[in-house]
Write a structure and sequence with these properties.
The complex is a heterodimer of chains A (276) and B (224). By secondary structure, chain A is α/β, with parallel strands linked by helices. In chain A, strand 3 and strand 4 form a beta hairpin. Chain A is globular. Chain B has a single domain, classed as MetI-like (MetI-like fold), CATH 1.10.3720.10. Chain B has eleven helices and no strands. In chain B, helix 2 packs across helix 5, helix 6 crosses helix 7 and helix 10 packs antiparallel against helix 11. The chains are: A alpha/beta (276), B mainly alpha (224). At the A-B interface, strand 5 of A face helix 6 of B. Chain B: Pfam families: BPD_transp_1. Chain B: Part of the binding-protein-dependent transport system for molybdenum; probably responsible for the translocation of the substrate across the membrane. Chain B: Keywords: Cell membrane, Membrane, Molybdenum, Transmembrane, Transmembrane helix, Transport.
């Protein structure tokens, strides 16, 4: 893996790229759950890992929060116990009550994880990761399994907590909407390498960056010619959208066809999305 | 019916299972997650009692425990304990003989837990020790229960090893399985049947309880 970047303190960075690009591995290396073969990881002025100096700060001492893709809630503990687990004996439990309240989990605090919905479990996972007031919060595709509304609610919750506690965030996500909503920086990885880094605008919308394109995957539902323009009703991420495309493409766009559109690259722009 | 062999059998099985549980927890953890060379060798040694004839294990233990050889002589000199034809010897032999029955289910239980549970615990600042006792073990209760009962039942059913190193001393080493054999040898089928029936019934009840408890533990985890 060849990755090098710096994240300003208190910023939110999205980490994205195709499956197998090494995003989760990088996240776990930052957390100290896996050690890189060579390299250096430092946070503020502390070195967490340095292969040359043989420094390996254990995960427990890095003061990070980690939200796992599968939530990783402890099945034997209630919601409240999951949060209390992070505290040492005799520590003030006020933060647990506060977090339960802020995540709307107070009523559910006596339940076991299996009695909760996916969105509720993810809120517990987020709250638990914040109990120790981490300096850096790492999230591995945290909202991928949730529906649209729940995803937005949790994104808002994450932003609220981030603004309140001012921790830095690295979030692995495939959702470009999420990147624009949350992140100030985005790092695009492919095949273990960092291929693009910058603000979401620079990476996705500014034509000058190497991988600057917005890709839309869609499925044709119906296709109509009108005034020399092709009106295509297409399914984009489970929503019906109308696209206006050149008439010459009619032959390629039979109902049921899956297609990809690229925007903002050096290649010609071939259509506009109208949102209903 | 003389109840002493039955009492002795269950005492032996209980002591053996408790000792093995204590030994097996760290060993199972080590086998499940440890990074070390020679894992194959360790697994082969622990698994030997599964495939070796009990008489082979009994024979070597008999030699080892005998005061004529260095191990037996050493134990006798240091602890004043003669292991051959004695109850402590029987316990040690049972512990070795039932080792895989305790370790394998617990190891499988530990390995079946998602890796993220351990990782989550570490990111919450918890040590390996805390993670093991507060997160991993409570979440593999069915595996631990299964391991305990398998070990218990396996010790109750032990015959070859006991005969080799324990002999047949009433109240000391004469367990139920050996008693049944003796009664059959003496053509005393009624007595043999009584002992056999008791073992049969108790074993069935234990297994019934275990599977019922395990099913209810597993049912609790299923989302409704």
């Amino acid at each position: 893996m060849e990755v090098s970047f710096q994240l300003p303190k208190g910023h939110i960075m999205a980490l994205t790229g195709p499956s197998g690009a090494g995003k989760t591995t990088l996240l776990k290396q930052i957390a100290g759950l896996i050690n890189p073969e060579t390299g250096r990881i430092s946070f503020n002025s502390t070195t967490w890992f340095d292969s040359d100096l043989n420094v390996k700060l254990p995960t427990q001492q890095r003061n990070i929060g980690f939200v796992f893709q599968d939530y990783a809630l402890f099945p034997n503990m209630t919601v409240r116990e999951n949060l209390l687990f992070a505290l040492s004996k005799g520590e003030d439990q006020g933060i647990v009550a506060d977090l339960l309240k802020d995540t709307g989990l107070t009523q559910l605090s006596g339940r076991k994880p299996f009695q909760l919905s996916g969105g509720q479990q993810q809120r517990v996972a987020l709250a638990r990761a914040l109990v120790l007031k981490p300096d850096l919060l790492l999230l591995d595709e945290p909202f991928a399994a949730l529906d649209h509304i729940m995803r937005h609610q949790l994104q808002d919750l994450l932003l609220k907590f981030q603004q309140r506690y001012q921790f830095s965030v690295i979030i692995v996500t495939h959702d470009i909407g999420e990147i624009f909503r949350l992140a100030e920086q985005v790092a695009v990885m492919d095949n273990g390498k960092l291929v693009s880094f910058g603000t979401p605008y620079e990476v996705y919308l500014n034509k000058k960056t190497p991988s600057g394109h917005l890709i839309i995957h869609a499925e044709v539902l119906s296709c109509q010619k009108q005034n020399n323009i092709l009106h295509v009703q297409a399914l984009v991420e489970n929503k019906i959208r109308e696209l206006e495309l050149p008439v010459e493409m009619e032959i390629q766009l039979l109902p049921g066809t899956h297609f990809t559109l690229q925007y903002g690259t050096d290649s010609p722009q071939i259509g506009i999305i109208k949102t209903h | 019916m003389d109840l002493q062999p039955l009492w002795l059998t269950f005492r032996l099985a209980t002591i053996t299972s408790v000792i093995l549980l204590i030994i097996a927890l760290p060993l199972a953890y080590w086998l499940a997650f440890g990074k070390f060379k020679g894992r194959g060798i360790a697994e082969a040694i622990i698994g030997m009692p599964l495939v070796l004839p009990p008489s082979v294990i009994g024979f070597y233990l008999l030699l080892a425990f005998s005061p004529s050889y260095w191990f037996g002589a050493y134990i006798e000199k240091i602890f004043g304990l003669r292991l051959v034809f004695s109850f402590p010897g029987l316990v040690i032999a049972s512990v070795l003989y039932s080792l895989p029955f305790m370790i394998y289910p617990i190891r499988a239980g530990l390995q079946s837990l998602p890796l993220s549970l351990r990782e989550a615990s570490y990111t919450l600042g918890k040590s390996e020790w805390d993670t093991f006792f507060k997160v991993l073990l409570p979440n593999c209760k069915p595996a631990i229960l299964t391991a305990f009962v398998l070990t218990f039942a396996h010790t109750v059913g032990e015959f070859g090893v006991v005969l080799m190193i324990g002999g047949n001393i009433p109240g000391v080493t004469k367990v139920a399985s050996v008693t049944i054999y003796n009664e059959v040898e003496a053509l005393n089928y009624t007595a043999a049947n009584q002992y056999a029936m008791v073992l049969f019934a108790i074993t069935f009840v234990i297994l019934l309880i275990v599977y019922s408890v395990n099913n209810s533990l597993l049912r609790v985890r299923q989302p409704s």
